[in-house]
Sequence to fold (698 residues):
Amino acid sequence: MKLELDHLTKKFGDFTAVNHINLTMKNGVYGLLGVNGAGKTTLMRMLCTLLKPTSGTIRCDGRDIFKMDSEYRRLLGYLPQEFGFYPQFSVQDYLLYIAALKGIPPAAAKERVKELLFKVGLSKAAHKKMKKLSGGMKRRAGIAQAMLNNPKILILDEPTAGLDPNERIRFRNLISELSEQRLVLLSTHIVSDIEYIANEIWLMKDGELMHKGSADEIINSMPETVWECFVEKNMVSDFIKKYRISNMKTEPDGIILRIISQERPFTNAKCVKASLEDVFLYYFGEKAGDENAAI
Amino acid sequence: MLRFELKKIFSKFKNRIAVLVLLVTLILTSILTINKVEYIDDNGNSSTGISAAKNLRTAQNKWAGDLTEDVLQKVLEKNKKIKNSKEALSDDLLEQDKAFAKIQDITGILDVINCAFSEYRDYDGFAADHVSGRDVKNIYKKRISALKEYLDSGKETFTDEQKKFLIRQYKNLETPFHYEYIDGWSALLQNISTFILILALIIGFLVSGIFSDEFQTKADSIFFSAKLGRSKGILSKMWAGFLITTVFYVVFVFLYTLTVLFVLGTDGANCPIQLDMWRSVYNISFLQAYLFIAAGGYIGTLFASILAMLVSAITRSTPTAVIVPFIVLCALPFLSRIITLPGVCSFFPDQLLEIYIDIKESGLVELGGKVMTTAAVIIPVYAVICLILQPVLYRIYQKAETR
Fold:
């Protein structure tokens, strides 16, 4: 299974949401990292045939996915950022309906739904109405619907948004478990979601792909160094003005700052190994800090 | 898939309320229709309901048979006798009612005579009181001669072809009329258009969310990214809309008809509608008129539903789609009153729900030199439009993009 994006561009009027993206994906987990508005969702929607590109092509094993039509969608599982459902449906009915939409015969669908409900831990909630599910349960129902057709291509748009830390870890493990033998594209603005499970990470900003590679390659691509130093509380505001601060930890007699800078910011500052979060802050700047408060 | 589409519709609270409203409307309209038939007993007391209809039916069916000259003369004689009785001439309303009770059996036939001897486009409820036995013999000829006089009067705007058509239709009507108690059918036909209008609006309400709700609930992404989302998924939505429209229409119209005719009686189904609609150009029976009205109503309801679904698919807004049947079926008739567009207004879709008026008043159209009644044209025309709109609806939804 190979997906190729060739000069993929999407414009909404004068606004370019995705700008000439060239990529090739094979089996494995791909993490799409970027702040809100970077173009991640637009890119994913094009990959799901929900939006047509303004220019460029998406090919699946050499064939245009829009020409493949349902043949392509047969391979696809998608969990959108805003997971909409039918509130009055029970979880089981909802999944059976989506199974029907995916062309799964009723008898096979029943078995598959049962299997997936067990896998995502919703067996006991099978007859519960969708609207009565917690945020985490809804997301799990969402991943179950995406997996119904055992897709070769699984696209998950911000799958952990709004989940509490426990649910996020659980969800991350579930995605990792489901990623065998398929192509998984996972978009997020939460670094920890993909840091450990993505084989390749793409950094996206303003509709363009800034960097791509493994977590280590991305970290190594940062031209600046990460420093850690202990400073007095009254000095913090000066450091914030002068440097990028990726973390602050308050201690009884001062603050430990994590600073991204080419030069040593303070005499007692020691050089530490950069993390993906540091890189994220470096590339996406203040905006990333705001958006990434949940990290 | 169809099962789930239907489930989506009926799991919504507002749609359940709409069905409840429909049931209440059915009951209320049935009661109002049934109460149209009144019976006055010998003491002058009026009643409605099953027994009233039964009594009236028994009384009027004594005169069942062909309305020959002999029968018409007997009716006139009886009418004159009762009208000159002490009760009828009394100032006491109760006494007058007692007199009326004695001519209830012939009121249906008297109505025919009244129509025949009134001015062509008027109705004189006492015309029969002044008709002689000799004049009443020519009642069927008078129908044709009155039409000719009217057509020659210059008060109308018919073309020569239309005039010929009208006269031909009048001449083709089989006489003498077969008479039976017809009040059940008459009441049914008079009220069915209103019931169908309410039915069409509620059906429009039910189907208006079929396409837009995917967007409103944000379920569109999963729907369209599924293998059959842009093919069978859409077809199942269209089927759901068609099924709801058809099943609700058939079931509710049937229930209404059954209730009314069960109480008021089915007698008179094969009598000519001219017994009730003297000037009608349609040479059909009450049963045929009913089927014609029901067919027009169905096409009108189907058209409004499809239009609502189309707007639902285009605008992605259920509230906007809900308004469509209302505009098509209720606002257009008002527009036709404000703006005088006689030719165009006859083709507005609301006319499909007004076939009763068309049967009664006989609107005509001329196409390629051939004269036809308006109803005979608009029913097939809108049926074809409904068919044409199906692929349009399919394509619009199929091409939908979700941002």
About this structure: Residues 276-291 of chain A form the longest helix (16 residues).
